[in-house]
What we know:
Radius of gyration: 16 Å
Order of helices and strands: HEEEHEEH
Largest sheet: 5 strands, antiparallel
Strand order of the largest sheet: 3-2-1-4-5
Helix content: 10-25%
Structural class: alpha+beta
Shape: globular
Oligomer: single chain
Distance between the termini: 21 Å
Amino acid sequence: MNVDLNNVANNMYQGGSNADRGDIRKENGATLLIIPGKIEYDVKSTKYNNTYTRAVFDYLVLDGPNAGKVYYNSMNANAFIWRDIENAGKRGIPIVGKVVNRPTEKSAQGAWMIDTINDQNAWVDAIEKGKQMGLI
């Protein structure tokens, strides 16, 4: 085992109940680099008598108050979000975008979804930052 003591933040294991997994809905429109992990199907709800699907992923906050913060093993069960993460994972690519709440046909209150960026230079910059942080 090789542990770099000059780079403790990237080598120190943070898991279990000590980990701050973040919540992409609370990043207030910040641009995020999302690295798809896995999709978990038929997760039993502890609150309701049903099952649901959720995405497990890592993400880097690229701007805003939490810029530079990395969250590992974050989870989200919103259908719009986990489907985007599932599709990106199948293609083996990360997502760069902002998480926004938009009204839908079924809900005037809106639903959380990922608004991906179209600027190729910003996408490349995000990928480079992800590489520097060890996410890619």
